[in-house]
Amino acid sequence: MLACLGCEWHLKSNEETSDDTPLAIERYDRIESLYLTTGDYSALLQMNKTYPVQTRTLIEDVLRLGQVNDPDINAKFLNFFRDSTLQCLIDDVQHQFEDLEDISQDLSRAFSRLKKEIPSIEMPQVYAQIGSFDQSIVVGNKTLGISLDKYLGADYPFYMEHYTEQQRSMMTRSMIIPDCVGFYILSLYPMPSREMSQEDRDMHMGKIQWVVNKVTDKIVFDNHRVASVDSFMKRNKQTSVEQLLRNNNYSELR
């Protein structure tokens, strides 16, 4: 169900969005924040009853604290975030991401364009969460989770100490939409084989990055693999985006 490539994943069928209808981002992070900073039991109940899939994914797959039905899991979850760095993180996330309207609007436009290119895809239920600096996007079970703690800006103090300059350049608010689209596509069109050469794996990601550029209407990714795919698509104008993503003849794309 899950796969990891720098970020990690998890998908609920939603109504088709349009450019005029924002794809709502559910603020699971706010309920999570309330519980982790105050120990409010009603917040914990809401996490478990309203967002059971998100809570299970967070505890079991993102934080890897154990099974969600373990007798001591709530205490373990609370204690994990008592670390002063993580408490500061929670405050910083709530401050920086008090308003997600711009992200919701841009995400709606990108997914609307993606839906036009691939009409058969289902729209995910999107939510925001707080992790622990490990995973960015979580896709699966018809949900798409955005770990806001991975998008606090290239100059965020913790990032400066623990990530390279190249990594930090991708840990910004502006990368949320490309990452959501890219990892959602990758969940639908995963690597066809574990035995693939690194060159073919890179080209597979190049296809996805080209599509991300197309549906976000921005040059987010600019490298020779994306350039190769762009050249292929210009030579083969009859090829649809869906056909491109299904094409695993990587030598043809180079």
Provide structural commentary.
It is a single chain. This protein has 13 helices and four strands. With 254 residues, it is of the alpha/beta class. Strands 1-2-4-3 form a four-stranded mixed beta sheet, with helices on both faces. Helix 1 (28-38) runs antiparallel to helix 5 (84-96) and helix 9 (176-188) crosses helix 10. The two termini are 30 Å apart. The relative contact order is 0.14. Mean pLDDT is 91; it is low at 1-20.
How much beta, percentage-wise? 5-15%
> What structural category arises from helix and sheet content?
alpha/beta
Give the oligomeric state.
Answer: single chain
Order of helices and strands: EHHHHHHEEEHHHHHHH
Major beta sheet summary:
4 strands, mixed
Shape: elongated
Q: Tell me the span between the first and last alpha carbons.
A: 30 Å
Kindly report the average pLDDT value: 91
Number of strand elements: 4
Low-pLDDT runs: 1-20
What proportion of the residues is helical, as a percent range? 40-55%
Outline of this structure?
With 254 residues, this protein is α/β, with parallel strands linked by helices. The protein has helices at residues 28-38, 41-50, 52-62, 73-80, 84-96, 101-117, 157-162, 165-168, 176-188, 198-216, 224-235, 241-246, 250-253, and strands at 25-26, 125-129, 137-140, 143-147.
Name the descriptors.
13 helices, 6% strand, 254 residues
Which secondary structure elements does this structure contain, and how are they paired or packed?
Elements: E1 25-26, H1 28-38, H2 41-50, H3 52-62, H4 73-80, H5 84-96, H6 101-117, E2 125-129, E3 137-140, E4 143-147, H7 157-162, H8 165-168, H9 176-188, H10 198-216, H11 224-235, H12 241-246, H13 250-253
Parallel strand pairs: 1-2, 2-4
Antiparallel strand pairs: 3-4
